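EI: anyone free to look at a 459-residue chain?
SC: sure, send it
EI:
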Amino acid sequence: MRQSWVTKRRSDSTPTQMYYARLGVITEEMDFVAKKEKVSAEFIRDEVARGRMIIPANINHTELHPMAIGVGVTCKINSNIGNSAVSSGLDEELEKLQVSIKYGADTVMDLSTGKKIREIREAIIRNSSVPIGTVPIYEAIEGVKDPLDLTIDDILEVVEYQAQQGVDYMTLHCGILLQHLPLVANRITGIVSRGGAQIAQWMMHHRRQNPFYEHYDRLLDILQRYDVSISLGDSLRPGCLADASDKAQFAELKVLGELTKRAWERNVQVMVEGPGHVPLDQIQMNMELQADWCHGAPFYVLGPLTTDIAPGYDHITSAIGAAVAGWHGAAMLCYVTAAEHLTLPNANDVREGIIAYKIAAHAADIARHRPGARDRDDELSRARYNFDWNRQFELSLDPERAKERHDETLPDDYFKTAHFCAMCGPKFCSMKISEEVKNWAKREITLEGKFIGDEVSAP
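SC: here you go
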């Protein structure tokens, strides 16, 4: 679909969506997004021009169906996939990609750190209709014997290669500075970002400033040429509740605000990454602070997890925080699976993580009173009250799971029209009884609109 769009109009030296938006041009991608979001194309153009919205769409990812990330459109979710040095290969990662798209991930990040990183990423991009994100430092480290030998040229070579492949957005850890490192000394979990920890180790060893920060303009040169959106990584995000909202986290956030403006000066699209573990009562403050310090750039948060005591259930602990974050302004929610902190997620972990986050994002859209956000809920409620089981399944976020659970105890087709489920049985169904009450109440209302029960004295 995008091949003709790119061939037709992307010959400028700065072929970014922000560049065209600021010229007053509505690109095909903007028009496509507007139809999907049911808003005007001019609104999309204006939000992209202001930096409050991004359309991650590398000119070399022509298989893409464009989407937008921003507070002015529906809350999005991201699915993380990728192999490790000890687990998974190409077939497994493609399966995770297919599961991610099937169950509704809006973007997918390939976080591979094992073998055949380039081959796996190429297959993922060519088979993906959603934007693909990466963390380039993972591949850069994989390409050297010792991470401490890494140079800025090594990093830029990887960034350029990934951009040529078609990566739509990249997490780059540009905001952690040498002077920030003492601020983590008293943390319980220190630095939990893999990329951030690698940069911190490099700075500590060489006693030099972050090369991503020092050579930020060279990074922007590459991103600008391919319209790769930058996801400014939060290297110092809190890894537990005790470390949330501390000096280290906010010191980096201020730098990310500075880097946001510098990217906009080059017409590079930006979103800012946010914290991973935050108590419920601090989430709103974190969202509002980011919007202020980072000038309204879309906020992309990992969870956040609202408690640290549930290994194996962190898709739940984080979805709670994600719903609140989305309500208070997060534009995209990075899912957390049940495997978080424990192991590499498998395809089922991906499925359950996505559904948990689709729930969180949808709850956030309802809380923000987005037009039409609750329509599906109301339609499902009517189907539930009318015992239209098949319509309930159809409207569910995971129709297969809904049908599977219903059919565990009532598998026959007869029960697809029955006015009860296995929880209540035929005698105790409150909705069936409620229908009788409603019918009786209608009969008891007089022609004058009075209910005879009004004349009955209270006990």
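EI: DSSP finds 19 helices and ten strands in the chain.
SC: 👍
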